[in-house]
Amino acid sequence: MIKFDIHNKETAPSGSVAALERADDDFGFVSNMVGVLAESPTAINAYLDVVLGIRDNGTLSPQESCFLMLAISSHNGCEYCVQADGEAARKAGLDGTRLEAAANGGEINDDRLNALRKFAFSMVSKHGRVSRSDVQDFIDAGFTRAQLLEVVVVVAAKTISNYTNHLANIELDPQFKLPA
Hints:
By secondary structure, the chain is mainly alpha-helical.
């Protein structure tokens, strides 16, 4: 496996420096994953645009977005992102039952979150070729057509981060490690 550098503002290509500053400003630090993405100005900027767009412009609640990100990362087997997304979900106010359900696929007594996860998993496993009933079940759970597209954007964000982590085998940041 190829070794990737974890870039900072001093080591990153010039086209990635502003993105590293943006990540630091928005998240309070630069994660190892973002540092790896900085190898490519295209990759880091695309990732930040998508993730911050979800956060700043999405109509899914912060809890729903975080639940969805955590569930997709778990579904994709990305240990790094499960920890990082779990921390983001805790900060967004997701309770332990919902965190556990997102991270481990368990059922929860929340029809809306179950529908959100089910639709996202259909999107991922069917490579976007969901059925009419998949879409209708999502809409029937109270979601909108715009939110159908937001799920596509979350899947894209998780594809970038999960695949980057699989490719680079990134060490987990201390900020994401659970207390012993």
